[in-house]
Design brief:
The chain has helices at 22-38, 53-56, and strands at 13-17, 43-48, 64-67. It has one domain. The chain has a 3-stranded parallel beta sheet, with no helix packed on it. Strand 2 (43-48), helix 2 and strand 3 (64-67) form a beta-alpha-beta unit. It is α/β, with parallel strands linked by helices and 77 residues long. The model has no long low-confidence stretch (mean pLDDT 86).
């Protein structure tokens, strides 16, 4: 029998990293909400540009918001 590694009980925390501008950041919120709905007992943390904090902090399905910028990112694309 093959085990499904995406089993909703296998995750405790999920990190979402958003490195886009505000419009694209807003467009990702339904996807984050969907992830939250699929993994109900999971804490979701979002890393984004500091200017996005005020938008992301009020999302009821996001547990914590952290900051990332070009200067603090290890990998730059």
């Amino acid at each position: 029998m093959v085990k499904n590694i995406m089993d909703s009980n296998s995750f405790q925390k999920i990190l979402v990293i958003i490195v886009t501008r505000i419009g694209d950041t807003l467009s990702t919120t339904p996807a984050i909400e969907s992830i939250s709905g699929s993994y109900k007992d999971t804490e979701i943390t979002v890393l984004a540009h500091p200017k996005r904090y005020t938008v992301l902090q009020h999302l009821p399905f996001v547990h914590d918001v952290g900051f990332i910028s070009k200067n603090t990112a290890i990998w730059k694309g």
